[in-house]
Amino acid sequence: MPVKKSKIHKSVKIFNKNLVNIYGCSIEAGTKIGPFVEIQNDVKIGKNCKISSHSFICSGVVVEDNVFIGHSVTFINDRNPKSINAKGELKGNNDWVLEKTFIGKGTSIGSGSVIMCGVKIGKDSTIGAGSLVLKNIPNKSTFYNIRKDYLKK
Q1: Whose CA, among 25, 105, 123, 153, lies 20 to 30 Å from 137?
Q2: CATH number of the domain to which 22 belongs
Q3: Is-contact 62 81, C-beta < 8 A?
């Protein structure tokens, strides 16, 4: 797994460069990146962030300074994913719309969360572990999903 064509400040700590996939992004000073993380093209990561293992940050995501991203956090950038276009051909870059996602300064995103595209999470907010974020979250808010028992007994 490579680290390619990215603007990464010399103070950034990548715990094992052989166990990440980082390309075409920018990562600012003091940030730490755990193993098995993928950061795609056009992602911007601010200063002093911590990105925990097994997280996926796709194109179109902006992460401001001092953000914590827990283990196995997934960002989504396509609201209507399909493998083929209307002609029945595999989709290419022009067959879908990238929706940007913004994570405000000082935010903490708990492990296992999924962040839908087009969402803005305000600064100093907390996203509880395992959350599915489908809408904007205001500054200084706490958000979590309450799981219900859907199994029939």
Answers
A1: 25
A2: 2.160.10.10
A3: no
Quick check: is 151 in a domain? no
Residue 113 exposed, middle or buried by CB count within 10 Å (0-12, 13-18, 19+): buried
Task: Tell me if residue 19 falls in helix, strand or coil.
Answer: helix
Residues making up the chain, counted from first to last: 153
> Is residue 38 over pLDDT 70?
yes
Q: Write out the residue range of the structural domain in which residue 131 sits.
A: 1-79+90-144
Q: What's the total number of domains in the chain? A: 1
Is the pLDDT score of 64 beyond 70? yes
Mean pLDDT of the chain: 94
In a domain, 135, yes or no: yes
pTM to 2 decimals?
0.93
